Amino acid sequence: MPRIRYLKPEFFSDEDLAELPFQTRITFAGLWCFADKAGRLEDRPKFLKAMIFPYDNMDMDKQLESLSKGKHENGVPFIQRYEIEGIKFIQIIRWDKHQKPHHTEKESIFPPAPPLKIKRMGMEKQLNPSSELDNVKVTVNKQLFPDESFELFWKAYPKKKNKGYAEKAWQKIKPTKELVDLMIGKIEQLKNTNQWIESSGKYIPFPSTWLNAKGWEDEIQAKSSW
Known about the structure:
Blueprint: H1 10-13, H2 15-18, H3 22-34, E1 40-42, H4 45-52, H5 60-67, E2 79-84, E3 87-92, H6 95-98, E4 116-120, E5 123-127, H7 146-156, H8 163-173, H9 177-190, H10 194-197, H11 207-212
Antiparallel strand pairs: 1-3, 2-3, 4-5
Helix pairs in contact: 3-5, 7-8, 7-9
């Protein structure tokens, strides 16, 4: 779920950021809106691209990779990309410097990043990007952050009606990443079928109906050329 974050005036005059392409700078600020209280979020380039740059053709993975490279001044990157139990995450470095989350915001459900090795002038040191202990053992739930995955579905579904009912149906399903990808793929295919094209989408089922009926499992009839 996107969150309201601060954007300080110093952001625009940061010399390290100034060396990065314009899209990369916007990406960095955009990540703040999707990071949790600890500055962590799932490393999902396709989702982040859809949320931060919905109308632009760009490579989100490339932007994230640029942000994960060390700065010239001190070798510290803007973000750290890491993986725990097969799940990829992003930690925004020095999160407390950028943001002061409200005390009522939910605590992070994502595991802390491992110590980051910084190389500078032939020397190597470790930076702990998280305030939590390095030896904390965290079990990662492979289900997507529920509201984020639903927004991805909602953005793809062509008939945006009764969002509240759709959210309830979504919460019952609790789809994994694999199922979300399957749903989105099926929706894109259905957009080209006669049933979903005719009468300006009049016969497209409501999103809650489609979810409750497991529409992603239906066979798709080829679009007629007549």
